[in-house]
Design goal:
Blueprint (H helix, E strand, L loop, with lengths): L6 E5 L3 H14 L9 E6 L1 H10 L6 E6 L15 H7 L1 E5 L2 E7 L4 E6 L2 E6 L5 E7 L2 E9 L1 E5 L7 H4 L11 E7 L10 E4 L4 E6 L6 E5 L2 E3 L2 E8 L5 E5 L5 H8 L4
Parallel strand pairs: 1-2, 2-3, 3-17
Antiparallel strand pairs: 4-17, 5-6, 5-16, 7-10, 7-14, 8-9, 8-13, 10-11, 11-12, 13-16, 14-15
């Protein structure tokens, strides 16, 4: 066991994930997360998302194994030869989105998103939004249920469900995707450079209230939301060489 790296195991609250954590900790030990060389997240994509948020700013080496219902960001669960798998894993480096949401009461809320920032109508009334990119108005009025902007890794999550494009990790692009756009009805969104600074202004905010969410941090009754990629923060996810994230993103685009 002397060549076994220090591994911290973090598991979702489900029984199957907790049982896997106990089994792996018995086999390989369970280091404190602050002292671990590798962090192994057990669960589905939600567990990976929570683990990334926990270690934001620390650039931990995070390797996921699927013990949940969804596992696009996870590796196959196998108990044998885990140290060798960790050492052979390929790294995917990502950057989160930083959201600054200004609410109707005058407060400003800052949050980070690993997957996406989304704006959604709060009532039966559709949202009316104005979109500015790098200080230039690009859409004076979008009437919709909402809109989102995602990271490349998040492009296979909510963005894909909203019929947005999947983006390879090294494309340096951020997909912007409307949710049930009413007008302009045929607008399908945009691909923005990763350096873009995006501003959403909420029109008729009292009549048509809108919330803004960075992953699972929600701000209600927003008036203005600013989004940009924060390249000062790097996140690292580890993948088995035969199923790295870039390959999965390409393969997903040919799934019918």
């Amino acid at each position: 066991m002397s060549d076994t790296p220090r591994i911290a195991f973090l598991a979702a609250t489900t029984e199957v994930a907790q049982m896997a954590r106990d089994r792996l900790a018995t086999l390989y030990g369970d280091a404190q997360p602050s002292e671990a060389e590798f962090v192994v997240a057990l669960g589905g994509d939600g567990a990976m998302l929570e683990t990334q948020h926990r270690f934001l700013g620390r650039n931990a080496q995070i390797y996921g194994m699927n013990r949940g219902s969804l596992g696009f960001l996870m590796n196959e669960y196998r108990e044998e030869d885990l140290p060798a798998r960790l050492r052979a894993a390929q790294a995917a480096q990502l950057h989160p989105l930083r959201m600054r949401a200004h609410s109707s009461d005058g407060t400003t809320h800052a949050s980070l998103a690993v997957n996406e920032v989304s704006l959604l109508r709060q009532t039966r009334q559709t949202a009316k939004l104005r979109i500015l990119i790098d200080g230039k108005e690009r859409m004076p009025e979008l009437i919709c249920d909402g809109i989102l902007i995602s990271t490349p890794a998040g492009s296979t999550a909510y963005n894909l469900s909203a019929h947005g494009p999947i983006v390879p990790l090294d494309a340096n692009l951020l997909p912007m995707t409307p949710i049930s756009a009413f007008r302009p009805r045929r607008w399908r969104g945009a691909l923005l450079p990763s350096t873009a600074r995006v501003v959403f202004e909420v029109l008729e905010s009292e009549k048509r209230p809108v919330s803004a969410t960075a992953d699972y941090t929600e701000v209600r009754d927003v008036r203005r939301v600013e989004v940009r990629e924060d390249r000062s923060i790097t996140m690292t996810m580890l993948f088995d060489p035969d199923r790295n994230l870039s390959e999965r993103i390409i393969a997903e685009q040919f799934t019918v």
